[in-house]
Amino acid sequence: MSMMKEFKEFAMRGNVIDMAVGIVIGGAFGKIVTSLVNDVIMPPIGYITGGVDFSKMKWILKPADDSDPKHKIAEVAINYGTFINTIITFIIIAFAIFMVVKLINKVHKKEEAAPAAPPADVTLLTEIRDLLKNKA
Predict the structure, then answer these.
(1) % residues pLDDT > 70 (the chain)
(2) DSSP secondary structure, 93-133, as one string
(3) pLDDT score of 92 more than 90
(4) Residue 59 contacts by C-beta under 8 Å, 6 or more apart in sequence?
(5) What is the pTM of this model?
């Protein structure tokens, strides 16, 4: 089997395509949640905490030095505010995924709980058997 044919079979498997769709949708969902955290959740938290903008919070280890235009030194800082935003984003995404999985499990339980109706053939044969039994 040629390498291209083997790769084509691998790439066209249902699971691979489903996974690719999930990754793309997951990336888009991540951007939505990031916007939710940065643009909707964090501003009120900043307002409650006295106008603090978490995304700008940092611990400066070495300040920037641009006194000499030829040898600019960039600031060295730990951006813990961005880290706080990322943790909140993660918690929201994890909770949303938890709710989706919980919903899917609930739907699967309902499908399993519903007893399957016997096929029409079996029902018809059962009726014929009962009629023959009554005549005998």
Answers:
(1) 92
(2) HHHHHHHHHHHHHHHHHHHHHSPPPPPHHHHHHHHHHHHHH
(3) no
(4) 77, 78, 80
(5) 0.52
